[in-house]
Design brief:
Layout: E1 22-30, E2 41-44, E3 51-53, E4 59-64, E5 69-73, E6 80-83, E7 92-96, E8 121-123, H1 125-130, E9 168-171, E10 174-175, E11 180-181, E12 191-192, E13 199-205, E14 220-225, E15 234-240, E16 243-252, E17 256-265, H2 268-273, E18 281-297, E19 301-320, E20 323-344, E21 347-364, E22 367-385, E23 389-409, E24 421-443, E25 447-456, E26 466-474, E27 480-493, E28 503-517, E29 521-534, E30 537-553, E31 556-571, E32 574-577, E33 585-594, E34 598-607, E35 611-612, E36 615-617, E37 620-621, E38 626-627, E39 630-631, E40 636-637, E41 641-655, E42 658-667, E43 675-680, E44 687-691, E45 696-704
Length: about 700
């Protein structure tokens, strides 16, 4: 419902270009891949007003004076400075090297995951910014991958038919259990709490998650923050339809850096512009502050500290047969992550610490609930690398607690102010220490085999479990990669809804993933099978993923994927389709650049509808004076879900040291009427479709200096 009010195209430093009395012709390419760079900045060091940009083929022409210096720069690459006298042949090819803060690179600079070869997807920072469906959010960007099977428009990610409760999200090796903003009572939220500007890498393990992490049974998203000490301060100010923000990163001394960002999000302007599509959204607001500190110590050691705080609230119209009013949410959230890493020869020692809490209030009708969540996490790891093998082992301590207080309707179908109300107060927690070990062996130049175990140390009468994993990687040629993975995984979950009793999730998974990469093509095929048990429900999922990405020209590229799931769940003797029994997800995007400064991106998603349970009858309950619905035993499908999002952005050169990015985006531009569920009138004789987001416009300006 809040899907379309934030699309932040965050700061990307862009230096400019200008001028000479000798006609210099040439082409600008990337050093590592030799791909051309359209829109690269070409300028004169002597006259900053003299400059140009490369065309769609990376070509340029500029006239410079003798003794001048040619300056060549591009987003995320080191600036190239060449005296005119050194250019002896035309046309000249100039190669730019990616800087450590490049928006294209996603190599982990922090503690390395030992099973990184088995990563299925690495999301580039540039793709997060340019994909309008991602809204500059690194978690929402995962929804653009073929492995994402999320059936709503939220940041609670489902991977390969697993529920969001099974997906593990880690920041700097610390689990983030409450990772969404603008959440409802069931924990479903619209955006994540991560700022893309400080993220160095996003690795997605859609199936078998690495056993060096706990807290996940069906997919894992691992984010790492930057470890960059900038030579010059980097600043950004953003002004968009629903936010005012700033970002600043600077060097402290020779071996440390400090980054901070803050945003304020009002709702008046975006609700006014999109009054029809956001008619149920009454108001929202948030204010946040993030601080990131990095320091290199002597003797190959480093320290990272990150703290994030957010204060948020929102209101939307909620219509039920016995209640028609406003749902209100208020929440304060803070988490702190600290990391220490030290290398001794071929061995790396690391300590990771996380502390977080949130306090939220939810009110509508007779429901008035306060929910407090707290998490404490510590881990110590030892990682040793050799010529033929590597191993990593560690211990972790994870304590999650939930405090629930409030009132709510006794009967879900009778939520009016005049109906019976129950009160509850619960204090629950999960304390779960674990040990893991993982060993990886290089079987020649083409084969890598790995295996690991993870075992909990039983506390507080929790169930004893033993997780195991095996991986095999085969690389027959530089362009081919084959992954085979299997494992059994466990996770203790503490729900955020009215039932706060801890429960254990078990999952068995088997997957085969094949990837082929050529100069312009990338193709992949994945098949998988998983069995998951949550309380008394067993779910079996069979699936297939097909993916292709093709660069048609330096100015245009497209990608297309197909995902199909056959998912059934069994409770007792009753078997029914799983909510993720979706036979097709078709998603893709097309990106076109015009002269390197304009970018037009179209993103689409077409999928089969999910499920709902229709009302068969609604006899009158005289004691409560309401109609009591009865539902079918077998669910029916909602209509298919279709959406097309479009964004247009342009880069401007303001001064020699500052640039600006302006953008306009339209979510669901074709205004598809996608049905989320159905709302009924008081006696259940009529129903109305409750829709996902309609067409919504958003625009903004971001200045980098």
């Amino acid at each position: 419902m809040l899907r379309c009010f934030i699309i932040l195209f965050s700061s990307i430093g862009i230096t400019d270009c200008l001028s000479q009395s000798l006609v210099v012709k040439g082409r600008v390419t990337e050093f590592a891949t030799h791909e051309v760079l359209p829109g690269a900045s070409i300028r004169s060091a002597a006259d900053h007003q003299l400059g140009s940009t490369t065309n769609n083929n990376g070509e340029f022409e500029i006239t410079l004076i003798a003794g001048d210096t040619l300056l060549v720069s591009f987003i995320g690459f080191e600036e190239l400075r060449i005296p005119v006298e050194m250019i002896t042949a035309f046309p000249v090819t100039l190669e730019l090297k990616a800087i450590s803060r490049t928006i294209e690179a996603v190599e982990i600079k922090a503690e390395r995951i030992i099973a990184e070869e088995f990563t299925i997807r690495k999301i580039k920072k540039l793709d997060i910014y340019t994909n309008p469906s991602a809204k500059a959010d690194p978690i929402l960007a995962v929804n653009a991958t073929p492995s994402a099977t999320t059936t709503d428009e939220s940041a609670n990610i489902s991977l390969r038919g697993g529920s969001p409760a099974e997906t593990g999200i880690f920041l700097n090796n610390v689990p983030i259990n409450d990772a969404v903003r603008y959440s409802q009572l069931n924990g479903i939220g619209t955006f994540s709490i991560f700022n893309t500007a400080i993220v160095n890498s996003v690795l997605v393990y859609p199936g078998n998650p690495p056993l060096e992490y706990g807290n996940s049974t069906s997919g894992l998203i691992a984010l790492q923050t930057d470890e960059v000490i900038p030579e010059k301060a980097v600043n950004t100010v953003s002004l968009t339809l629903a936010s005012i923000g700033m970002y600043s990163s600077r060097k402290l001394g020779q071996q440390s850096s400090l980054t901070f960002f803050s945003n304020y999000q009002p709702s008046a302007f975006i609700r006014t512009l999109n009054s029809k599509s956001l008619k149920d959204l009454k108001a929202f607001s948030s204010a946040d502050l993030g601080i990131h500190y990095f320091k290199k110590l002597k003797s190959n050691a480093s320290v990272k500290l990150f703290n994030y705080s957010v204060l948020e609230s929102y209101q939307f119209h909620l219509a039920q047969p016995t209640y028609d009013g406003t749902f209100k949410q208020d929440k304060i959230r803070n988490f702190t992550v600290g990391n220490f890493r030290k290398r001794i020869g071929n061995t790396e020692l690391s300590f990771n610490q996380g502390l977080s809490f949130s306090k939220a209030g939810y009110k509508y009708g007779t429901t008035n609930i306060d929910l407090k969540l707290q998490d404490l996490f510590s881990s110590f790891n030892v990682h040793r690398s050799g010529i033929l093998s590597e191993w990593k082992t560690g211990i972790s301590y994870d304590h999650k607690s939930s405090d629930f207080d409030g009132s709510f309707p006794v009967f879900a179908f009778a939520s009016g102010m005049q109906h019976p109300v129950a009160s509850a107060s619960a204090r629950d927690h999960v304390t779960n220490p674990e040990w893991f070990g993982y060993y990886k062996y290089f079987l020649g130049a083409k084969w890598i085999a790995g295996g690991g175990i993870r075992k909990n140390i039983v506390i507080d009468q929790l169930k004893n479990y033993f997780s195991i994993q095996g991986n095999l990687n085969y690389k027959p040629a530089a362009s081919w990669n084959v992954n085979l993975s299997a494992g059994q995984y466990h996770k203790y979950q503490l729900p955020q809804g009215e039932n706060s009793i801890p429960f254990l999730i078990r999952s068995k998974q088997y997957s085969a993933d094949i990837n082929h990469t050529a100069s312009s093509w990338e193709n992949s095929l994945s098949v998988f099978y998983k069995e998951t048990t949550i309380t008394e429900t067993e779910t079996a999922v069979k699936g297939i993923e097909l993916f292709t990405r093709y660069r048609i020209s330096p100015a245009m590229r497209f990608q297309l994927s197909f995902t199909g799931l056959d998912a059934k769940e069994t409770t007792g003797r009753i078997t029914a389709p799983s909510p993720y029994n979706i036979h097709y997800f078709v998603r893709g995007n097309v990106e076109y650049k015009i002269q390197g400064t304009w970018t037009i991106t179209t993103v689409f998603l077409f999928r089969q509808g999910s499920y709902y349970y229709p009302v068969t009858e609604a006899p009158y309950n005289e004691a409560l004076a309401v109609y009591e619905p009865a539902y079918t035993a077998t669910p029916e499908r909602l209509p298919s879900y279709n959406t097309v999002d479009v964004s247009i952005s342009k880069i401007f050169l303001l001064t020699q040291k500052s640039t600006a990015i302006t953008f306009l985006s339209a979510g669901n531009i074709l205004n598809f009427k996608n049905v989320r569920t159905y709302n009924y009138n008081f006696d259940y004789t009529q129903r109305n479709a409750y829709l996902f987001s309609l067409r919504t416009f958003y625009f903004g300006l971001i200045v980098n200096f």
